Amino acid sequence: MRGTGVILFLTLVLLSACCPLADVSVPTAASSPVPAAASTLTTQEAAFAELRERMVVETIERRGITDAEVLKAMRGVPRHLFVPEDEQGYAYGDHPLPIGYGQTISQPYIVALMTELLELKEGDTVLEVGTGSGYQAAILGEIPGIEVYTIEIIPELAKSARERLESLGYARIHCKEADGYYGWPEHAPFDAIIVTAAPDHIPQPLVDQLSEGGRMVIPVGPPGGYQTLWKLVKQPDGEVENYNMGGVAFVPLTGGDR
């Protein structure tokens, strides 16, 4: 039934995105008509772009996200390509979606919020723990001058995310299948670290891999219980200042020191 809903949803969106009949250009003898499949694809992508713009305006900007590069990235990344095909009609709603293997893609507002909290600037290197489908990595990869290292512990997700990001041309995103609890020491220190699943404590290896002045954004809390989104900032003396950013709900971080 959900698949039928998606078809009906997209049909309505596509109809609303179509031009009035009077505005449609008629090919002349000197021009080549657009193949039907290509025309449908173009119209479908235009409909998704309209939904994406609405998502940014209604669920991200209105809730206080102001970073221009973050907003541009949220407008630029085709979120529907990072969810299963039968979920694409729901891709631009402000809610998480399943991506398989017990994992989810976070709701758009949370993706934007966590990215803004990283306070990224050109030249920064970022570690992401929990690649998932690759959507958060793609958002990071859209920000100019940022080098992204992303780790996924589930082999199937790591493989599909790498292939997806490569096919979309994200040359500055480096993927690895590994236990993200331990970070990626070969490329440390990182200016920013973002964790997209919730451990029940802050992993010390990630703190150790933060540069001086580095920022970490991470949800912490028990599986199925109350979780808190924390922003950590590493001080010159190596100590970390913690800022409570409010309650969240994430899937648990797997692997690591239990």
Describe what you observe in this structure:
- The protein has 258 residues and is of the alpha/beta class.
- It has one domain (2-19, 36-248): Vaccinia Virus protein VP39 (Rossmann fold, 3-Layer(aba) Sandwich), CATH 3.40.50.150.
- Helices cover 33% and strands 22% of the residues.
- It has helices at 2-17, 36-60, 68-76, 108-117, 135-141, 155-167, 204-208; strands spanning 97-100, 103-105, 125-129, 147-152, 173-177, 190-195, 210-220, 227-234, 240-248.
- The strands form 2 sheets. It has a 7-stranded mixed β-sheet.
- A hairpin with a 2-residue loop joins strand 1 and strand 2 (103-105).
- Helix 2 packs across helix 4.
- The chain is globular and about 55 Å long.
How does the SSE layout of this entry go?
Elements: H1 2-17, H2 36-60, H3 68-76, E1 97-100, E2 103-105, H4 108-117, E3 125-129, H5 135-141, E4 147-152, H6 155-167, E5 173-177, E6 190-195, H7 204-208, E7 210-220, E8 227-234, E9 240-248
Parallel strand pairs: 3-4, 3-6, 4-5, 6-7
Antiparallel strand pairs: 1-2, 7-8, 8-9
Helix pairs in contact: 1-2, 2-4, 3-5
Count of separate DSSP helical elements: 7
Strand order of the largest sheet: 5-4-3-6-7-8-9
Task: Describe the global form.
Answer: globular
CATH architecture: 3-Layer(aba) Sandwich
What's the CATH superfamily, by name? Vaccinia Virus protein VP39
SSE order: HHHEEHEHEHEEHEEE
